C-alpha cells in the first residue's frame, strides 16, 4: 500500500528525480483536510510511478515561501526537480490524476 511522503527541508531532494506531486497544506485548513483522502488514494494509485508528497506549511514555511505558496492547498507538480505545473485550491481526484498521467 502506497503512502505519501512527508517532505521537509532535509529530504526535499526526493523531488529531483521523476514525477512528484507536492501538496502544500496545514492542519487548520478545511479544504486541505477535504483533499487529504484524495492524496492518500493517489499515493496508492501512483505507487512506483510518481511520488506523492505533502508539506505542512506551518512547519516548513521556508519551503512554502521558496515556491511562492500564498494560499493552501497548493499542489505543485515537479518533473526531474523542475516545477512544471501548479493547482491552487481543493481539486478533484480526476483533475489531479489527469495532470500526473500527462507528466509520466
Proportion of strand residues: 25-35%
The radius of gyration is 12 Å
Query: Strand-and-helix sequence, N→C?
Result: EEHEHEEH
> How many helical elements?
3
- Give the strand order, joined by hyphens, for the main sheet: 1-3-2-4-5
Summarize model confidence as the mean pLDDT. Answer: 96
Task: Report, as a whole number of angstroms, the end-to-end distance.
Answer: 20 Å
Major sheet: size, sense and barrel closure? 5 strands, mixed
Q: What is the global morphology? A: globular
Number of strands: 5
Tell me what the structure shows:
The chain is globular and about 30 Å long. The chain has helices at 30-45, 61-66, 93-103; strands at residues 5-6, 19-25, 51-56, 74-79, 82-88. Helices cover 32% and strands 27% of the residues. The chain has a 5-stranded mixed β-sheet. Strand 4 (74-79) and strand 5 (82-88) form a beta hairpin. With 104 residues, it is of the alpha/beta class. The model has no long low-confidence stretch (mean pLDDT 96). It is built from 3 helices and 5 strands. The longest helix has 16 residues, at 30-45.
Secondary-structure map:
Elements (H helix, E strand, L loop, with lengths): L4 E2 L12 E7 L4 H16 L5 E6 L4 H6 L7 E6 L2 E7 L4 H11 L1
Parallel strand pairs: 1-3, 2-3
Antiparallel strand pairs: 2-4, 4-5
Organism: Campylobacter molothri
Protein name: Thioredoxin
Give a short summary of the structure:
The protein is α/β, with parallel strands linked by helices and 104 residues long.
Output the keywords.
single chain, 104 residues, alpha/beta, 5-stranded mixed β-sheet, 3 helices, 5 strands, 32% helix, Thioredoxin
Amino acid at each position: 500500500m502506497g503512502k505519501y511522503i512527508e517532505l521537509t527541508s532535509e529530504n526535499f531532494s526526493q523531488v529531483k528525480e521523476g514525477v512528484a506531486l507536492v501538496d502544500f497544506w496545514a492542519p487548520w485548513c478545511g479544504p486541505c483536510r477535504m483533499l487529504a483522502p484524495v492524496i492518500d488514494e493517489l499515493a496508492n494509485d501512483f505507487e512506483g510511478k510518481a511520488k506523492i508528497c505533502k508539506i505542512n506549511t506551518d512547519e516548513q514555511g521556508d519551503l512554502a515561501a521558496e515556491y511562492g505558496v500564498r494560499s493552501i492547498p497548493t499542489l505543485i507538480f515537479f518533473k526531474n526537480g523542475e516545477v512544471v505545473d501548479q493547482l491552487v485550491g481543493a481539486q478533484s481526484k480526476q483533475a489531479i490524476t489527469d495532470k500526473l498521467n500527462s507528466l509520466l
